[in-house]
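Hello, quick one for you while I still have it in my head. No rush at all, and the record is pasted right below.
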Amino acid sequence: MNVMKKIICLVFAVLYLFTLNSCREDGDWGNGNGSQFGFSIERDNNFIEKAVGETNQLKFNVQPSYDFESIKTSFKFTTSLNGTLKLNGELLTANQEYNFTTEENIFEYVGNVSGIHELKIVVKNEKGVSKEEVFSLPYSVSEFSHTYSGGTGSIYQGDETQYLMKIVPGSGQPSTGYQIKFETYSGQVKLNGVAVNLGTWYAINNIDSFTTSLQTNTSGQGKLTYSVKNSTLSKDYEIQQNIIAREIKIESMNFSPANISINSQITLTGIVKKSPVNANTTIQYKTWISSASNSNLNGIQSTNNTYTNYALGSNGSFLTTINALVAGTYTYNIQVKDEYGNESDVKSFDINVTAPIYFDDNVTTEGNIILKIPSPMGGWKVFQQSFSRKFKLISGGNATITAVKYELNYDLSTTTSSVHVTRTYNENIIPGTTVFEKNNDIWQTVGDQVAFLGGANLDVSNLTMKISGTASTGEVVEITFTPTGSIVVS
């Protein structure tokens, strides 16, 4: 009975923990930024008084703790006094729901009457998390009002964006004597198409229509701050911008040939795309080796991770050659950068560099020499009967094997005399051979008398076999080892 109670208690405990965990997951839909689907708002807070009809720009960045693209986030707004609100140039309607398309946003509010305009923006995502932000925007009648239009489309790094501006004097106010001073901007500022210096007052000759042009290479949110004044009043303004970073991408990158030997050239070919497309074909690229089977990070020529200038060909074509220097397997990397400092993803590939000709280390090199002597008749006639060999030669890159040579060396001695023997043999190589292998194949040398010695106790010593291979590039590889040897009596 006690065992049954324990089992029942255990079941209830498991069910309780499961229910508690499920409630915790459901409870993540809270309004706090720390919840699974929470978010915060980065915004402007302090606003100077504007003249009726002037624009307030309101930074309004949604900062989610989740993937913004995967969960719809919307907003509504209301205003306490008569005014208009725009986002991305679109005139918005109060109490109507709109979807955010980006995390970083700049609202534009224009107050049409004097007073403090209470603008409320309520943000909500699909998971039920919501936040309300209130902006207090003071408006009054002033000696003059200043308005501008433009800059509502997408602005990319390097784009020159023009704003059409005007000044409207208040009733009874003068229409001349106005000046403008540009205070801060991370780029170039032009007034009526002419570059200006920051911190300098410039006369406005036509207050009904003048232009300010802005151009920057800095991406992200930035702003121009400036002042407008007449003989009695100076007012501060700003233009906020969202500058979109340009992109550069390695669409494709390949190397050739597939088989590469040392002291040969590797060709890198590919396509590099800039987005949006512009007429400037200048980029920078860098290459480097991140791993090498032989620990030699200089086995293939590279820029050593340092950017170098390059002019793209038609349709973004890229072409360069590098030298293979040392045999090995390498991870080779390339990255490109545009004129604004934007970098592409890294493109990596494995490159195997071999010698033009080499012995396969996976095959044990060995050999055997057999000597023959007839029954002695007043002296020792020694004949080389045969030799065998085992090895594997491989050519690398575009090379072929053109020659294989054997050199046999050994000493023959008796109690009264000795002689050193050297014999060489050449294989008959078929043109175009890239792999040459022998597996203890026997080369018959019957009838080759190598010595005639007097004395007793014939012995063979100091046996060596040298195998040499020659590639079509002229490179020679060789290996010398000690074969086995024996003497047979017939």
Observations:
- The chain is about 5% helix and 55% strand.
